[in-house]
Amino acid sequence: MFGFWKTWKALEARGIMGINRRNADYVLKYNKRSLYPIVDDKIITKERAIAAGIHVPELYGVISTEKEIDKLDEIIGGRTDFVIKPAQGAGGDGIIVIADRFEGRYRTVSGKIISHEEIEHHVSSILTGLYSLGGHRDRALIEYRVTPDQIFKSISYEGVPDIRIIVLMGYPVMAMLRLPTRQSGGKANLHQGAIGVGVDLATGLTLRGTWLNNIITKHPDTTNAVDGVQLPYWDGFMKLAAGCYELCGLGYIGVDMVLDQEKGPLILELNARPGLNIQIANDCGLTLRTHAVEARLEELQARGVIETVEERVAFAQELFGHIPPVEG
Hints:
This protein is α+β, with helices and mostly antiparallel strands. Helix content is 32%, strand content 23%.
């Protein structure tokens, strides 16, 4: 037991945030329960983002009841690729990504052939709440399928890589690139076997990665290096993430974004309870950074100053960026 406490004290000294501290000091403190539906329901998030002029994957249609499943043909129309997902799903569960059509059927991004009836059955399962938070009845949304930017071709297996930035009161504090693998079934979900790669906030340069709780520098499927990759549009990603504070009103969030090869940076979803593995990917604790932001907020409040999105991003990049590359 003494050894455990000694180890935990060492982690605390490095600013490593545990789940209890995250919940008590940040989620409960900065996130009003009344605002949770804005981020827990992807349709509401998308509608708010569109109203704010923030780019998101185009919404083709929504199915809310079993009777509306008959609208599926009309919503899909002649499209050869699209995504079906639960509005209140979590962890990537319940998402079907259609990449093409084949002989009257559909081909998923992993190559599996499924029928229209199977898609209808899946939508029905979404409506029953099979994939929703708390098992409540849900809605299914059909939207644009993101085509990843070519920069990810050598460091990702199928699926769509995404970028998560944790934001405290509008200040980005830590970023991570999540890369699908064969193990994760092409999903950018760390718990299912995706790779988490730290990202330098100032430059958008990738750092080392973590995969199945191991530190890595190469993608297990492509064998290409995941560190030292320059992410394009980085300042744009940082400003998008910082602006999501005004979008949803929640003070502590994870902002998930993607880079489409045609449409550029897009907001995918927001998370009111972002996970803590991002610390492993960055080899850095969240607490020291969040304390620095809170100190900044106190200072500004005393002066009666409110910073713009650009000023918040500049502060975060100056204080938390320019991480030296990890020695191999």
